[in-house]
Design brief:
heterodimer; A: 0% strand; globular; B: Actin, Chain A, domain 4; 6-stranded mixed beta sheet; 5-stranded mixed beta sheet; disordered N terminus; nucleotide-binding (chain B); Hsp_70_fam (chain B); HSP70_peptide-bd_sf (chain B)
């Protein structure tokens, strides 16, 4: 296929400068980039320096940290934490002069919730955390990729949703009596002895 | 273990700021413009109140009659008889026509209405006209809607004794973003500022959230999460939503919508009673319009009666020797509309599937809208949701407008000392938004049922060596190919470095903000470049009427020269 006049770069005698794929690798994260852009672009007179720092902090915090729950948190606790934070950061209820900032926070909370409320993705995230890859922001990208990879095959999708459904059910069963196996055993023993 | 009720954590920095907001913010009113009926409600300081017009009606017919100089709408006007609405002078069903082109099947189905809907079938807006002094006077759905909204606004201002500017409007789930711009335009013409456009079932979900919160308070009970399925079917549209509610927060899990409604039931039955209807009415003469009106009224009455009777007599003399006289069985009506009911079933099933829920997971099933009185519709909803009874705490015709009024109060920053407004809706996108890539495929970037506000991005690359430019076509919908989705707009990115195909990294990012505004950012990422070409930021939609043409023309002009493909990831082939 030959490019017609439009969109064609004038052909020069020398070969085009080659850019190896590996040199493309250092990636610019667009959202954070544009955050800065909109921040400065909108020329908000207020100093946003502190906010920018706090974004960076948010980026480095784990999803559990973001939701303010322990790593052993149950699905119920995740849901509760999410709804509480939504009531604080959702643009509909946030103070009018901080909508932009709170919207960013809400999106992060939403992402943390989406990963942690899905047993399969939470499992992957936990494993990554154990390996020391606990940066929420890069982690998110990982799971996003994984999400879109799922779409290659409809069968795989269906199989996975069935699997996550099963896991969800078992998690829900656990969340009913939100304690560890050890705690349950201890309680049983206490009840038996009393 | 008792569950902890959700409470807003006291946060001195935020509450302190909220208190300093203006003392008397204007409370936005809620408006539900139905295809056939419409209503207005407002938070009156302690509860939601529906406003009544001068004739003491809470529900008003959605139509505008054109006569002589001043058009009159269903808010102030009172019809001597139903037939007056069918004389050719009245335009109704604007909600079915707004923002649609003349190739749309919904527009074609509207050609049987007793006013003029003319199509040229080329993808431009249809010609719509009302019969005034034996002449077809042209208008547009936006204009008709604006005239109607002006009346509504005047009525609300008289009732509330204050100017009304801010509104929350309910809309069908299946509306495209282009259609939303038409609604916004009509509101602007009527001097109204749209604070929120709320999919109808999500407004119902908010009312449900408030009711659940109140009953939790009364019983001193726990704020445990409840799942509700909301089925809303009016004259023009059918919507389904699934919400997870706890502590006054309604989180929309999934939405599904379609253009099927009471109007389809009516038209199918009219065709059944008079198979030659299209042919007889195609000329739109004054006599034909009168006959069409007679048939329409008789059919409508029959459908209403069939909600309580098993069979009804139909006796209508259309003149000119055409007479319809028969007993219509309920089963016959259901058979004639089999496809409509099947569509309802599919929507509910799809919504459950998208929410990753089984019927057993749903705590409450809510059914609202004019068609909720039809026994077959109730049976379908109950059988798919596997239950014996439906949620009974709502008036099916008022639920949406009440929810809109609640959202109006919440979005206006009003708080209630008794906590009745400690509410929040977390919305989701009803349709996927993406771009054209990999040929004429639609590649979603923000998927359907994604929580908003949201920001998502994806990388693409070129299809030709040394391709310097690329066209970004933005579409909305859930079909595989772009032709079957709604075009929202297009723009070109330039400055792609001269490298082999597949090498450049073209980033497309989509952002939906708090007020549901969609922005698309796109550009080429060149690592290490000192001054890379600037990114584009485009607010969507950018298209106007006749947009189907522009995409076709662009494809014809440029072929695949400015195309993009998705970036293949490692291990994916």
């Amino acid at each position: 296929m030959f490019c017609n006049s439009y969109g064609l770069i004038p052909v020069s005698s020398s070969p085009p400068p080659s850019i190896s794929p590996s040199s493309l690798h250092p990636r610019i994260y667009y959202p954070s980039n544009s955050q800065l852009r909109t921040k400065f672009g909108s020329l908000k007179a207020k100093s946003k320096l502190n906010d920018v720092v706090s974004y960076a902090e948010l980026d480095n915090r784990s999803f559990y940290h973001l939701l303010g729950i322990p790593e052993t948190g149950t699905l119920l606790e995740i849901k509760q934490a999410y709804k509480q934070l939504a009531r604080k950061y959702h643009p509909d209820v946030s103070p009018p002069d901080r909508v932009e900032e709170y919207t960013q926070r809400f999106i992060r909370v939403q992402e943390a919730y989406e990963i942690l409320s899905d047993p399969r993705m939470r499992d992957m995230y936990d494993k990554d955390m154990a390996k020391g890859l606990h940066f929420a922001f890069s982690a998110r990208r990982r799971y996003q990729n994984d999400e879109s990879m799922e779409e290659i095959g409809e069968w795989k999708n269906r199989w996975q949703s069935q699997l996550s459904e099963l896991k969800r059910r078992s998690t829900r069963k656990d969340s009913g009596n939100s304690m560890s196996w050890g705690a349950r055993m201890r309680r049983q023993r206490n009840e038996a002895s009393s | 273990m008792a569950e902890q009720a959700y409470t807003v954590a006291s946060d001195s920095e935020t509450t302190g700021e909220e208190k300093t907001s203006p003392a008397f913010p204007e409370i936005a009113i809620g408006i539900d413009i139905g295809t056939s009926q419409c209503s207005v409600a407002v938070w009156n300081g302690s509860q939601v109140e529906l406003l009544r017009n001068t004739r003491n009606r809470k529900l008003m017919r959605s139509y505008v009659t054109f006569k002589d100089e001043v058009p009159a709408g269903g808010v102030s006007d009172e019809l001597a008889h139903e037939y007056d609405m069918l004389s050719g002078a009245a335009i109704f069903n604007m909600k079915r026509l707004i923002g649609r082109v003349d190739t749309d099947p919904v527009v074609h189905a509207s050609k049987n209405l007793p006013f003029l809907v003319q199509t040229l079938d080329i993808g431009v807006r249809p010609f719509i006209a009302a019969l005034v002094n034996k002449m077809w006077r042209s208008t547009t759905p936006e204009e008709v809607l604006a005239i109607f909204l002006v009346e509504l606004r005047a009525m609300a201002e008289v009732k509330l004794r204050r100017p009304v500017r801010n509104v929350v409007l309910t809309i069908p789930v299946s509306f495209s973003r282009f259609q939303l711009t038409r609604i916004e335009r009509a509101c602007a013409m009527a001097g109204l500022h749209v604070l929120r456009l709320m999919p109808e079932p999500t407004a119902v979900a908010l009312l449900y959230a408030q009711q659940q919160q109140q009953s939790a308070h009364e019983n001193m009970g726990s704020g445990s999460e409840k799942i509700a399925l909301i089925f809303n079917m009016g004259a023009g549209y059918c919507d389904v939503a699934i919400t997870a509610t706890a502590g006054g927060v309604s989180q929309i899990k999934a939405l599904a919508g379609s253009t099927v409604g009471g109007e389809d039931l009516l038209q199918n039955l009219m065709h059944h009673l008079l198979p030659s209807m299209d042919h007889i009415f195609s000329s739109h003469g004054i006599e034909e319009i009168k006959r069409m009106g007679l048939l329409r009224v008789a059919t409508q009455d029959a459908i209403h009666q069939l909600s309580s009777e098993m069979s009804v007599p139909i006796d209508v003399d259309l003149g000119n020797g055409t007479k319809i006289s028969k007993f219509l069985e309920r089963a016959e009506f259901e058979e004639v509309n089999k496809e409509v009911f099947q569509k309802c079933e599919t929507l509910i099933k799809r919504c459950l599937c998208d929410a990753k829920l089984e019927a057993e997971d749903v705590h409450d099933v809510i059914i609202v809208g004019g068609c909720s009185y039809i026994p077959k519709v109730r049976n379908i909803v109950m059988s798919i949701c596997k239950r014996e009874e439906l949620y009974s705490g709502m008036n099916p015709l008022e639920a949406a407008v009440r929810g809109a009024a609640l959202e109006g109060a919440v979005a206006s920053g009003i708080s209630d000392p008794f906590g009745s407004l400690d509410l929040l809706t977390i919305q989701a996108t009803p349709l996927s938004i993406g771009i054209q890539a990999d040929g004429s495929n639609f590649v979603p970037i923000i998927h359907q049922n994604t929580t908003t506000p949201v920001r998502k991005e994806q990388n693409f690359t070129t299809v030709h060596d040394n391709q310097a430019e690329a066209l970004i076509f933005v579409y909305e919908g859930d079909e595989k190919t772009v032709e079957d989705n709604h075009l929202l707009g297009y723009f070109k990115i330039t400055g792609i470095p001269p490298v082999p195909k597949g090498v450049p990294e073209i980033n497309v990012c989509m952002d939906i903000d708090a007020s549901n505004v969609l922005r698309v950012f796109a550009g080429v990422i060149i690592p290490g470049a000192k001054c890379p070409p600037p990114f584009m930021e485009v607010r969507m939609p950018t298209v106007d009427d006749g947009h189907a043409w522009s995409a076709q023309t662009l494809h014809k002009t440029y072929g695949s020269t400015l195309d993009l493909v998705t970036v293949k990831k490692k291990g994916q082939h």
